[in-house]
Amino acid sequence: MNTTLLQLAARAIRIMMLVISVFVLLRGHNQPGGGFIGGLLAGGGIVIYVIAFHTHQLLSKTLRAMAPLRVIGLVLALGSGVLGMVLGKSFLHAQWFNLNIPLLGTLHMGTPLLFDIGVYLAVTGVMVMVILLLMEDRKWN
Amino acid sequence: MIVFAPIIIPLIFIILSLSLGKASGAVQRIVFMAGNVTTIGVAVTILRRVLNEGYLVAQAGAWEAPYGITMVADTFSGIMLTLTSLTVGVVSLYSMAWREDKLNKPVFFALIFGLQMGMNGAFIAGDLFNLYVWFEVMLISSFVLISYGSKKIQLKGTLKYVTMNLVSSFFFVAGIAVLYSAVGTLNMADLAYRVREANGELNLFAPSALILMGFAVKSAIFPFFFWLPDSYHTPPLPVTALFSGTLTKVGVYSMIRFYSLIHLPGDVFYTQLFLFIASTTMISGVLMATSQFEVRRLLSFHIVSQIGYMIMGLGLFTRLALTGAIFYIIGHCIVKTNLFLLSGIGYKITGTFNLKQSGGLMKHKPFIAILFFISALALVGIPPLSGFFGKFMLIKGGVESHEFIHVASALGVSFLTLFSMLKIWNEAYAKDIPEDSQTQDFQFGKAPKQLVISSVILVVVTLSLTFGSKFIIDICDTAANQLLDIDGYIRVILNR
Amino acid sequence: MLSIVIGVLYAVGIFFLLRRSMVRIILGVLFLGNATNLLIFVTAGLKANGQPSFLAKTAEATKPALSDSLPQALILTAIVISFGVVAYLLTLLRKTHEVTGESDLDRLK
């Protein structure tokens, strides 16, 4: 699928989808959105890019780059849950705190965000892996 | 807090074994066994605490009971947690010695932990949707495990397994949806509370029928059991042993849990329904088993037949019968896994699973023959062994409830089970090596020590069920009592 | 209206499941999954006045704009699960094709 049109579009689409996915991830706490949807968007962007510039090197490079995301994502999501336990509350108990960022004001932060980021990373990693492995021509075992 | 541990610990070990992809084989195996030992430790701790304190309840995120995700451990869950983690541990030991390269990869270890996480979650889930989610975790791991290795016959079995289980899951979710619209809650304690409050006014026929469909396929009861013998004999033997010991028990556990909640006293319909299912399951399973000559298929049909006994306990729904059913689940899980492990050892020695082609094990490998003898008799329920107590309590419960037809079928099925165990004994152990088969001038293979050790562990557990039967039966009795004491369950979870 | 759609989806799903081709089985599973999600949505989520059903019957009626959010959470979870299952099934399909060169179930012996 090495058409110029798709390649031109794919560059733009990849960046757009990645940015929007982060936006969706961050707005997910009180409005529609969240880690899963954000992860799907990001994964979609990456997959479109790989489809447009389909070469063997790119494919295996992407796969290698995506491999640690699953583990990191799981660790983050699990960690946010265990954090609640460590601090003496129940599993997955949310911990909230205010983060002061100079010039921008305060930000209301908490462990659910950490959980969502974990989900985001894991979903991106797994989705890209599944689609690319299914795309790949070589025999796998 | 410890209630979450059976879920978190396998998850930690999934992450560990996935991230250890590049480490040496020894490290991976050590991590694998460490994970199993930790899970067993957690399960035993929970069982002990539950025996002391009655119930362990935890709310995820500290949301109050009917709204948040509740995790409950009572004695029954404690027993099941201990039982399955023990089985998984022993089978893991076995699988490492099975000498098939694919079974020693980190992905395989992660899948075993995934299966474990799903089962543990299902045992301690406090609401129905959560139960469904854990079912799916367990199922997806089991899908991958059953197709692990991708032999041709295996893929065929996998397709049946996957399709049947997925369809049953959809039925289960549909049941949950209808139930939610009828009752307005999915938390099991709240559900039981509202059902009791409505005092028979609620019409739960459609949801409970749909949910029964879901559980029925998963626990392979009549008439939904055909997928089980068709797919269980295909994967590598350690996987088969693991599935046969644990997976169907999760279905049975959930059935007992769910129907004990909505089962109102004096409700004849469920009693008769479950007793009918129990008898037909027992009879059809054992009749099909008697005509098999492939060890794994024969044993698979026996699983079906013995699920019937467990359902019989649910059908009778008296304290004695439930105690019997729980004791039977314990005995069966261990013995059945062990029979599969032994048939694997037999395969390593004779090179075939077909009974007609094997033989001579009694003469040449008397130790393994003894192991098999004990397990087979325990399965049939010859007095001092573990199957006897469970069956005895079930049958006594049946007689007390005047369900003589079902008692008769349970007894008859016992004899047929004895018959087919004797068939394995005669064909594989007692008779000489068949002369007309190709195996004429072949050497006996060697069974690695680790395989035999894992089987010995399970036989020791079986024997200890005999010698410690008083202790175990007491625990089962507590569990059955808690199952019947729905008001206590509601009180603990909802504080009402 | 939606209930007719659900019925059709179930029928199509089961029809596909009973076909011999493996691709059809995956489609069937997808249809059944979506039918079930819609069923959750209709039976549990779409009430006449959209009162969250965990509120007590006597509680003051909420605004009509507010509906029960639990079924939607359930649907989201179910969608995630069916996503995973379909990914697995596709892999299985490919693997089967690779090993046997068949997509016809009857010839898979």
From TrEMBL, chain A:
<dbReference type="GO" id="GO:0005886">
    <property type="term" value="C:plasma membrane"/>
</dbReference>
<dbReference type="InterPro" id="IPR050622">
    <property type="entry name" value="CPA3_antiporter_subunitB"/>
</dbReference>
<feature type="transmembrane region" description="Helical">
    <location>
        <begin position="35"/>
        <end position="59"/>
    </location>
</feature>
<keyword id="KW-0472">Membrane</keyword>
<keyword id="KW-0812">Transmembrane</keyword>
<keyword id="KW-1003">Cell membrane</keyword>
<comment type="similarity">
    <text>Belongs to the CPA3 antiporters (TC 2.A.63) subunit B family.</text>
</comment>
<feature type="domain" description="Na+/H+ antiporter MnhB subunit-related protein">
    <location>
        <begin position="6"/>
        <end position="128"/>
    </location>
</feature>
<feature type="transmembrane region" description="Helical">
    <location>
        <begin position="112"/>
        <end position="135"/>
    </location>
</feature>
<dbReference type="Pfam" id="PF04039">
    <property type="entry name" value="MnhB"/>
</dbReference>
<feature type="transmembrane region" description="Helical">
    <location>
        <begin position="12"/>
        <end position="29"/>
    </location>
</feature>
<feature type="transmembrane region" description="Helical">
    <location>
        <begin position="71"/>
        <end position="92"/>
    </location>
</feature>
<protein>
    <recommendedName>
        <fullName>Na+/H+ antiporter MnhB subunit-related protein domain-containing protein</fullName>
    </recommendedName>
</protein>
<keyword id="KW-1133">Transmembrane helix</keyword>
<dbReference type="InterPro" id="IPR007182">
    <property type="entry name" value="MnhB"/>
</dbReference>
TrEMBL record, chain B:
<dbReference type="Pfam" id="PF00361">
    <property type="entry name" value="Proton_antipo_M"/>
</dbReference>
<feature type="transmembrane region" description="Helical">
    <location>
        <begin position="268"/>
        <end position="289"/>
    </location>
</feature>
<feature type="transmembrane region" description="Helical">
    <location>
        <begin position="204"/>
        <end position="228"/>
    </location>
</feature>
<dbReference type="GO" id="GO:0005886">
    <property type="term" value="C:plasma membrane"/>
</dbReference>
<keyword id="KW-1003">Cell membrane</keyword>
<feature type="transmembrane region" description="Helical">
    <location>
        <begin position="301"/>
        <end position="320"/>
    </location>
</feature>
<keyword id="KW-0812">Transmembrane</keyword>
<feature type="transmembrane region" description="Helical">
    <location>
        <begin position="240"/>
        <end position="262"/>
    </location>
</feature>
<feature type="transmembrane region" description="Helical">
    <location>
        <begin position="326"/>
        <end position="347"/>
    </location>
</feature>
<feature type="transmembrane region" description="Helical">
    <location>
        <begin position="161"/>
        <end position="184"/>
    </location>
</feature>
<feature type="transmembrane region" description="Helical">
    <location>
        <begin position="30"/>
        <end position="51"/>
    </location>
</feature>
<feature type="transmembrane region" description="Helical">
    <location>
        <begin position="367"/>
        <end position="385"/>
    </location>
</feature>
<feature type="transmembrane region" description="Helical">
    <location>
        <begin position="405"/>
        <end position="425"/>
    </location>
</feature>
<keyword id="KW-1133">Transmembrane helix</keyword>
<dbReference type="InterPro" id="IPR050586">
    <property type="entry name" value="CPA3_Na-H_Antiporter_D"/>
</dbReference>
TrEMBL record, chain C:
<keyword id="KW-0472">Membrane</keyword>
<feature type="transmembrane region" description="Helical">
    <location>
        <begin position="73"/>
        <end position="93"/>
    </location>
</feature>
<dbReference type="GO" id="GO:0005886">
    <property type="term" value="C:plasma membrane"/>
</dbReference>
<keyword id="KW-1133">Transmembrane helix</keyword>
<feature type="transmembrane region" description="Helical">
    <location>
        <begin position="25"/>
        <end position="46"/>
    </location>
</feature>
<keyword id="KW-1003">Cell membrane</keyword>
<dbReference type="InterPro" id="IPR039428">
    <property type="entry name" value="NUOK/Mnh_C1-like"/>
</dbReference>
<keyword id="KW-0560">Oxidoreductase</keyword>
<keyword id="KW-0812">Transmembrane</keyword>
<comment type="similarity">
    <text>Belongs to the CPA3 antiporters (TC 2.A.63) subunit C family.</text>
</comment>
<dbReference type="GO" id="GO:0050136">
    <property type="term" value="F:NADH dehydrogenase (quinone) (non-electrogenic) activity"/>
</dbReference>
<protein>
    <submittedName>
        <fullName>NADH-quinone oxidoreductase subunit K</fullName>
        <ecNumber>1.6.5.9</ecNumber>
    </submittedName>
</protein>
<dbReference type="InterPro" id="IPR050601">
    <property type="entry name" value="CPA3_antiporter_subunitC"/>
</dbReference>
<dbReference type="Pfam" id="PF00420">
    <property type="entry name" value="Oxidored_q2"/>
</dbReference>
